[in-house]
Design a protein that fits this description.
Elements (H helix, E strand, L loop, with lengths): L2 E4 L6 E2 L1 H14 L7 H7 L4 H9 L6 H21 L1 E2 L3 H10 L3 E5 L4 H10 L8 E3 L5
Parallel strand pairs: 1-4, 4-5
Antiparallel strand pairs: 2-3
Helix pairs in contact: 1-4
């Protein structure tokens, strides 16, 4: 194989706690029933534009959802540093694959800006040829 595709959340890094805390805060602030940890974890990997309308029981074009999306992204970015950690051995695997001449990509339901920020903060962005976030779809 010459090319490797990686997901970010729960593949390269353990970021679940940041997602769970952010979702629960946003739903509580919006006075909506707060999804359980299990509900959030089972839907992790889907864009918030897919899960939020279902959990909030709102039409996908509802203005309240737009605020919830923005609030989620704001809160997530405020807590992601202390709640996102590389899984053990990931950096070494990426370095070995890159050194062997492979092309590495990250494909994620996370937005590209957030994904790029996470890769930079975890000091692994240099291993990837490119990334594709949910805003590409």
């Amino acid at each position: 194989m010459e090319t490797f595709l990686f997901d970010f959340d729960n593949t390269l890094a353990n970021s679940g706690e940041a997602s769970i805390l952010s979702v629960q805060k946003v739903f509580a602030d919006a006075a909506k029933p707060v999804p359980t940890r299990d509900m959030i974890f089972s839907e992790m990997g889907l864009p918030i534009e897919t899960s939020f309308p279902i959990w909030a029981n709102l039409d996908e074009h509802d203005i309240q959802l737009q605020k919830m999306y923005a609030d989620f992204r704001d809160y997530y970015s405020a807590i992601e540093d202390q709640n996102t950690k590389l899984f053990p051995g990931i950096k070494e695997v990426l370095a070995d694959l890159k050194d062997a001449g492979h092309s590495l990509y990250v494909v994620s339901s996370k937005g590209s800006a957030s994904l790029e920020r996470n890769l930079d903060k975890l000091a692994i962005s240099q291993y990837f040829t490119d990334l594709i976030g949910s805003d590409w779809f």
